[in-house]
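Researcher: Checking consistency across runs. Here is 3-dehydroquinate dehydratase again:
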Amino acid sequence: MKLIIINGPNLNLLGKREPEIYGSETFEDFFRTLQLKFETIELSYFQSNIEGEIIDKLHEVGFSYDGIILNAAAYTHTSVGIGDAVKGIETPVVELHISNIHAREEFRHQSFIAPVAKGVLFGFGLKGYELAIQSFL
């Protein structure tokens, strides 16, 4: 099985940014833990702060991978383009958020990805990535 985690803007700051919301572990450290836990899965990771690069990555992997875990971060609530990219590919996508987006600002309650995603996970911290992987097994 071939899965990819695609993280959007500011998620490169995990471990530094708002640790009360996002925790103190870097995503790179957490990703190594995921790779060890799911050794039989070919698991890769991509992060970008640039909307177009996220769309390009979805196009690149969206016809050859078994699953995509997408944390588009703030772009979830603003990017029609990312929503359209998810709609246009064949690989199923799980939308993921570390925080409970419905316990935050009103604008975060809207998602352009959720209507075209396989499912949505939010509010479970980094554990959500593990749950998303399990959803593909």
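Researcher: Does this match what you'd expect to see?
Model: One thing to look at in this run: The chain has a mean pLDDT of 93.
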